[in-house]
Amino acid sequence: MATNILIVEDDDIMGKVTQNYFVKKGYHVDLAIDGQKAMEMLQNNSYQLVVTDLNMPYVNGQQLIEAIKRNKYGKIKIIVMTTMGTEAMIAEIFALGADDFITKPFKASELLARAQKLVY
Fold it and tell me: Which domain CATH number covers 51?
């Protein structure tokens, strides 16, 4: 059974590049353009991993992480990918319940390795 991943990224190019990379590696990947759309998709799909940006319209990454943890959507693992990599921000993200954090720009192979570690 393929691992289902939800990528939440408001930058269209970044989202599609990330999605295509995972698809080429055999994953089933959905793409949400913001946190609000992601929350709708979480209600109707089963994901093992959410890879989310932080700075997004409507519902930001922090709010999305809180919603995932509050609603207990299975045991979804969360990787945050963002340009904001301050020590305080990273600490806050882990305190909210994220499982990993990667700073943009990143190597696709590194993101894949982190994802595989969480879902296998």
Answer: 3.40.50.2300
Report how far residue 50's alpha carbon sits from residue 106's, in angstroms, rounded to the nearest whole number: 17
pTM, entire model = 0.94
Query: Encoding tokens for residue 32?
Result: 């949400």
Q: How many other CB atoms are there within 10 angstroms of residue 22's CB atom?
A: 20
In terms of residues, how long is the chain?
Answer: 120
Q: Show the tokens assigned to 119.
A: 């879902």
The per-residue pLDDT for range 38-56, each reduced to its tens digit, is 999 999 889 999 999 999 9
* 96 exposure class (CB count in 10 Å sphere: 0-12, 13-18, 19+): middle
Total domain count for the chain? Answer: 1
